[in-house]
Records
---
Amino acid sequence: MRLVIVTGMSGAGKSTALKVLEDAGYFCVDNLPILLIGKFAELAMKPGNENDKFALGVDIRSGESLKQLESALEEMVIRNCKYEILYLDANNTVLIKRYKETRRNHPLAGTGRVDKGIEKEREMTEFLKKQADFIIDTSTLLTRELKVELEKIFVSNHGYNNLYITVLSFGFKYGIPTDADLVFDVRFLPNPYYIEELKPKTGNDKEIQDYVMGFDITHEFLKKLTDMINFLLPNYILEGKNQLVIAIGCTGGKHRSVTLANKLYEEMRKHEDYGVKVEHRDIEKDALRGK
């Protein structure tokens, strides 16, 4: 029997997660009263059930009774009822943006500001985040990307170390990404911008990739960068980090940075324990003049 408690911040994707689990064959119940969770688990454990996979959506809609969840979980442990906690999170800026887009009020904000409701919700669910088996930060995830991560954990049963990596190319002329955790400057590499036939192309084109990767210094840099990232990842996990943005920049974010971001992404994809994606922030900007 597998029992997953789906919780986290309002607006972080709990409804999507429950839908994905339901499609994967889980029997899902959303917003079950806290006092009934133990009884539900007890019934789920009984032999002869047609379904052996269950998911419960629990969040601040439970109100003050959410405080009783901790003792309910302790009781389940005593009864040898195994469960896993999936905690969905997102940064405050993203959550506020999502609330504004949907024109919904935060359930704890009342007539006040959304950010105050979010702060209160973080305090109320902090004990769940500390106990979580899986923490997924959806700040930079599309719905389909969240679905892929959930299927890895709860369908394919791949390992998951609560870390999602975004490899991001950018142009220094447009500013360093504000959410970057690590920033690397590749402007020292030979620049295809000055070759007329390569100028209009991007690092997604084979001609640019062949040019940029045609130098020993590029391969040496990529090797050293990959080695350092591989060293850092397990240490970031120990620190409790669940979202890592690696930014690689050149002048215009079109040629060298895109090529190296793609290559680093290919290396990071070899780690099945981590979620990873690549983005090119400035690849379409200044198409004629970008470097």
Note: The mean pLDDT is 89.
---
Amino acid sequence: MKKILPVIFILLSVIVNGQITLEKTYDASGTFVNLTNSGDKFYIMDVVNNQCRIYNTDHTLWKTINLPVPVNNYLYDIRYVSENMFTLSNELCLAYVYYAYNTTSEYYTFNAKVIKDDGTVLLTIPGCQYMSAFTTENSAVKLLTYSYDYSIALYTITTRVYNLPGTITSIEESEIPSGKISLSPAFPNPASSFIKIPYLLPEGTASAILKISDSNGRLITTRQLLNTSDNITVQLNDYPSGIYIYSIEPGTSPSGGVSTFTPQAGKILVQ
């Protein structure tokens, strides 16, 4: 018995130490990044306050960067929080995208900026909704930006290629839709009475499923989306104030089978 007990104790220790544990919960989208000089950090996008908040790996606040967003525009994305990518002077920089919605003609206008953490603007990119960084075989760093003009029925796309002075230290997944549903931001957001969610289903997809859940993961609404439409309006009168997550997931294909596109999600703030 004396020999068996230590073995049991060791096995229990391994099981306990191998458990998955929740470290921290943030009420915003976030991701890790490795900064050239400052090391690993975790940053979130605060849509309500137009901020990028950066935390140490122990989740203590390291830095807050205010993101100037014009009136009646909304923060859409933050990309490439970095040091020595957009400059060579160890300065903390990032790129961010914001958008406005034309309620009369019902189309979106996107714009992007690259700024230093003190707010200095390094680059303004009109119409830019997505961007991607790439290192060539001769170690040159390129920034590709994709600008859309949704004011016309057959919208146009403009690709711009910028040469960057620095290097890429953290590879971020490209945000360019490829084999995915095209999902524009819900509007208005924050909202109180209704929300409109524009979408474009992939070719060959007959329908999809819209799911809306509260911040605790409880499913609130399920709606079918058809390929014959490009948006859906959801009434919010019965929604208590709070944060909700919506997702568009595969439905059926024209042959009657289940579609296989990659689901996409967004966030709604109900006031």
Note: Residues 173-179 have pLDDT under 50 and may be disordered.
---
Amino acid sequence: MNENRPLGEHVRFGSLDSLSQHLVTTAWDVSHRAFCFQSNFPVGSAILAENAAGETKVFHGCNVENNFFPATICAERNAGTTAVAEGYTRFSAVAVVCRKIPGGSPCGLCRQFLTQFGLDATLLCVVDHDKNVQLGTVGDLLPAATGLVLPLSDLPRTDAARVQRLLELKARSYVPYSKNPRGAIFRAANAAGSFKNFSGMACDNASYGGSIAAENVAMYAARTAGYTVSPLLSVTVSDVHSHNPIDGEVLQVLREFGKNPDIILIDDSRMLVTDLIRLLPDSFGPESL
């Protein structure tokens, strides 16, 4: 796959039902209150959510940036955490607008967040200043992988050695809280064209937000060393055919290395060769800012 196709189906604003129009308009309006002094990239979101009693309510949020970049919160998570705090944990519809250049979609972190509260929720990504949208579902944001599948028993020596190394890293993971061990290897070249492998394992933290994914350990090490060209990420997963096999945050970090790096997924019996576009369609990257 060599195109970054938009998510969902193009639908004109006037063809949307009144509730969807309300969500889109609300997201557009709240984007004007975005606190984005660093990026100048205002985003607004509106979420229709339901509580345990079956009551529904619309929650909205904008992106709020911070001088310490990791403390920034995106519009979708701003709206979503407000909904959850009020007991509305079943999301039915999500509208998102990137006002500066309409047509954007949620980042990997927001995709991971949204999938927790309703894969079948309607997704409305505003694509232009007339408020027309790409209409899909939250489940489309982090799909299952597609690509070439090979049994581990049939792998050539080089690939078999990679698998062995990944399993060693997985076994050394520090995961007392998540109970989700993972191993990762990130291969990339430097400016001189020399390739090198960087290893990572999952590391939990008692402050859950301080945990770091195996893939991110490897990718940050590679960037520190200056190896950012022609990237290939290999990682252990529970099932190569599962929905959302790699966390959205990891995919967003990988996106910084290019629009479509190659990815290898490995479970107990198979290896699946895929790429970033298939796991993070219509992604948000550095060229968007």
Note: The domain at 148-288 is CATH 3.40.140.10 (Cytidine Deaminase; domain 2).
---
Amino acid sequence: MFSISSEAKVGLFVLVGLIILGYMSFQVGKQTFSLKKGYTLDVVFDSAAGLDRDASVQIAGVEVGRVDAISLKDGKALVRLRMGANVKLEKDAIAAIKTHGILGEKYVELYPGTHGADVLGPGERIAKTERPTDIDKLLHQIGMIADDIRGITGSLNRVLAGQAGEEAIKSILQNAKDFTKNLNDVIVSNETALHAALENTRRLTGNLNLIVNRNDEKVTQVMDNLKTASLEMEKTFTTLSEITGGVNRGEGTLGQLIKDKTTADKLNKTLASLQEVTEKINEGRGSIGKLINDDETVKNLNEGLAGINRYVTKAEQFRTFLSYRGEYLFEKSNAKSYLDVRIQPTQDKFYILGIVSDPKGRRTTRDYITGGVTTRVEEWDRNGALFNLQIGKRYRDLVLRGGFLESTGGVGIDYFALNDKLKFSFEAFDFNKERRAHLKAGLEYQLFKHLYLTAGWDDFISDQDNRSIYGGVSIRFEDDDLKYLLTSTPIPK
């Protein structure tokens, strides 16, 4: 049987090892050779501490190059990167020095820029960098924090050590325990009354929230004031830091409370007095005691909150509108103007107050006596203004209204369509036995938020040649100032 000597086995093992080593060297050399075919990019860091030559250059954890050289330029570290030939970086790319773990070796991490932007050419510089984390500075700061914590714990140990300090703390905790127990008894015994008060408060805050939502500009001003207040609070926190330092030194009332037993005794007496007050409240003595224990007082408070709630609800529902409407009468070559105030206390009820400027003026009648014969003549006062005074009620898309229309009794019907953007109107007024009534039909369309277009036929059954096609525009907007002025006026009951 064929056998291999020990010397042959050793030689064969060495030969295999040399073959493997040569293959690995070839692969590494091949990779390095491929990088040598690439191009170089420069990047400047404030510090390149811990970064070695030939360190890895990565994008998203994938190696794309190596550190080719590190040199000093203008007091900063100039790092030259050799990138693979197929790797392209945009000009707004970012470079940073990272570490594998806390104590691992450092490498250069690249963050590609905007996709589709211009790319960096060979020898160009990456302009944007991230400041590397200084581990030594971080460890130094942690050490300083540990020293501060050690000083605080030492101060607490000196303050709380000893029989006097222990007794003072026990006394304070016992009084606080008694105080919370009495307060809990008061709340449990008056749970129903408190629930009622909280429900009224919840409704009030809900209505106030609706008002705030409709006053965004004022809320923005409040937010700006809060920002200013936060800056003042920062100053206050600085002052509190100084105060805590004084307390630690035994200065001031709180410092004496911790250092001086006499001050702790005074605090115990104060807590005992508070306990006595809570007992009186629980017995129903004093204003707060009546509020907690007397159902009549709680009822009056609830009625007051309910009244405020009703007032806020009324103010929110109450709406006022101002409008101007101009109509041009084509067949008469005259213009007619309307100025109205619409007061809407509820969603489906409203009142209209207004004045009308009619080119014909106001119709009047005058009696003339000639030879004992009385003659009645109708005349037009062109300087006289007409007025509107109407009340209306809405039923879904239909509105019925009545009252004085252009200084005479009459009625009107409106029908809304297209989510209230289009309105059809019909009015009848100025009823008289000697002439036909004044009938008017038209429509109104909302063109923009406050601008409307109007058109129609005025006095279309007139027997005195007053009929005319008309067209015009209308401006209408809601006035909150007038609303709150009207809702704040006391109404006799």
Note: The radius of gyration is 45 Å.
